[in-house]
Structure to design on (509 residues):
């Protein structure tokens, strides 16, 4: 179907497809009822998407919709399903979708005031509101700074990884002011260190590499049986660095680890950071949403002492993928990453791109504004409290079951457990040898893979050391309960489905 320039312009300004809009609308209504995915693996799916190059002529909309129906949806993962409880991406509120349509239509680039205008101010206001949630400053503090172009309370970016890298960039440049001009030549002998928990997010290693420090600069402190950083070992490491005259760029605490949701002892870490005069960063990408909860905010005592804090709205604040936030206790700390350009990001402007990595970024802050307006503090508190309460119920179900073993009691809403074959159910933790754990690992590995391909239910898996079962890492089934659609009955079905899969594995020999 050939088109001339006039017809292409019509596509841009006048085109609409009732068929496509009806298809998307219908799927949206029933998304939580669909199966998680079909039973085809990647090798089978690849056959449906042979490489043919870019089409020389436009396709008919009917053909495009048919491919979406027959290939895309059946082969995708339904994050909205109450049975999809393995990862941190989850069901979104329906009122987000019209905002998405509006943002696409506006197509604002909020790093530059000339390409976003009022959305620049929306974003600064939103950052100030979330900053107050974390740091608890008085209203006057924010009234004075919210629209001050020379101060930065926080930045919005594409996710927690970029937020963590940005935080450590500021910490590095603060510790070594010459770095921005002469780089690694700043050092005379020893390379500085970043201290974090062994459960810290892998973005810490990305940051170390990207900032020119290398992976070896990361000093990872072992965790206790509750997967929290050991303060006694942290103190020893700090003293060792001091004795060896190694500069500490930052001490990093985790408020909700990705693997099991544990919270490091933030208050004690903050005190040590002050004692050793080092930057204290808290990665609260996952757990930060619990600051809305009066019942559970106490678990985060010390976060208000952090120099920088990461939080991911696209996790438990129910914003579409692609939004992280970084907050600065000192409104001038972001100056350490400031860079301007006369043609676009000008000094002394409202341009948000002056103090962030990205040179182009959508106005995702509007999603969070909509959610905050629609849900308020009380709504978010209810959502996170319910998810944590449900996690405790699920942990109790696991603990009381005959065929599953609870590995860590949840502090927030992530649960680790494993299927335990019958022949090992009477063993005490000290009796689980490396050989026995390997056999159990294989069973759980097969179980999780088959569960994913079945398309009915899903949990994820990880591999980490659970102290009471020895010093070697073991395979853990991992459940993340952030979907407000998930209830106890769905969790019961997940466990029953896993029992069916194990039975099939055993019967197949």
């Amino acid at each position: 179907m050939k088109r001339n320039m006039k017809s292409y312009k019509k596509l841009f300004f006048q085109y609409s497809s009732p068929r496509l809009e009806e298809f998307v609308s219908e799927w949206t209504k029933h998304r939580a009822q669909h199966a998680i995915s079909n039973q085809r693996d990647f090798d089978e799916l690849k056959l449906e998407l042979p490489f043919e190059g870019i089409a020389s002529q436009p396709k008919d909309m009917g053909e495009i919709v048919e491919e979406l129906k027959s290939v895309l949806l059946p082969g995708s993962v339904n994050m909205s399903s109450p049975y999809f409880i393995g990862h941190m991406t989850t069901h979104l509120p329906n009122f987000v979708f019209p905002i998405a349509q509006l943002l696409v239509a506006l197509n604002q680039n909020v790093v530059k005031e000339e390409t976003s205008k009022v959305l620049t101010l929306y974003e600064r206001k939103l950052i100030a509101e979330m900053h107050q949630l974390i740091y608890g400053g008085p209203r006057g503090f924010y009234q004075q700074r919210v629209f001050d172009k020379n101060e930065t309370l926080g930045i919005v970016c594409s996710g927690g990884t970029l937020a963590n890298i940005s935080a450590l960039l500021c910490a590095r440049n603060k510790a070594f002011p010459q770095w921005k001009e002469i780089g690694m030549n700043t050092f005379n002998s020893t390379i500085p260190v970043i201290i974090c928990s062994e459960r810290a997010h892998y973005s810490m290693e990305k940051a170390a590499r990207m900032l020119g420090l290398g992976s070896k600069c990361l000093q990872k402190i072992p965790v206790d049986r509750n997967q929290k950083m050991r303060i006694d070992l942290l103190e020893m490491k700090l003293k060792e660095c001091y004795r060896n005259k190694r500069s500490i760029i930052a001490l990093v605490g985790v408020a909700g680890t990705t693997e099991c949701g544990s919270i490091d002892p933030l208050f004690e870490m903050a005190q040590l950071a002050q004692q050793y005069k080092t930057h204290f960063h808290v990665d609260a990408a996952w757990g930060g949403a619990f600051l809305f909860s009066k019942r559970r905010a106490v678990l985060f005592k010390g976060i208000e002492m952090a120099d920088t804090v990461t939080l991911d709205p696209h996790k438990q604040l129910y914003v579409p993928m692609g939004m992280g936030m970084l907050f600065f206790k000192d409104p001038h700390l972001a100056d350490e990453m400031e860079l301007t350009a006369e043609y676009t990001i000008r000094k002394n402007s409202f341009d948000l791109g002056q103090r962030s990595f990205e040179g182009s970024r959508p106005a995702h802050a509007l999603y969070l504004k909509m959610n905050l307006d629609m849900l308020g503090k009380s709504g978010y508190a209810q959502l996170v409290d319910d998810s944590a309460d449900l996690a405790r119920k699920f942990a109790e179900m696991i603990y009381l079951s005959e065929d599953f073993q609870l590995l860590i009691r949840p502090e927030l809403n992530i649960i680790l457990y494993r299927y335990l074959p019958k022949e090992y159910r009477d063993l005490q933790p000290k009796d689980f040898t490396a050989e026995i754990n390997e056999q159990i690992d294989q069973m759980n590995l097969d179980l999780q893979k088959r569960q994913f391909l079945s398309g009915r239910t899903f949990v994820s898996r990880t591999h980490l050391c659970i102290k009471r079962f020895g010093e070697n890492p073991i395979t853990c089934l991992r459940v993340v309960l952030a979907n407000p659609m998930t209830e106890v009955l769905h969790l019961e079905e997940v466990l029953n489905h896993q029992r069916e899969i194990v039975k099939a594995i055993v019967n197949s020999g």
Residues 15 and 72 are 23 Å apart (CA to CA). The chain is about 40% helix and 10% strand. Residues 365-400 form the longest helix (36 residues).
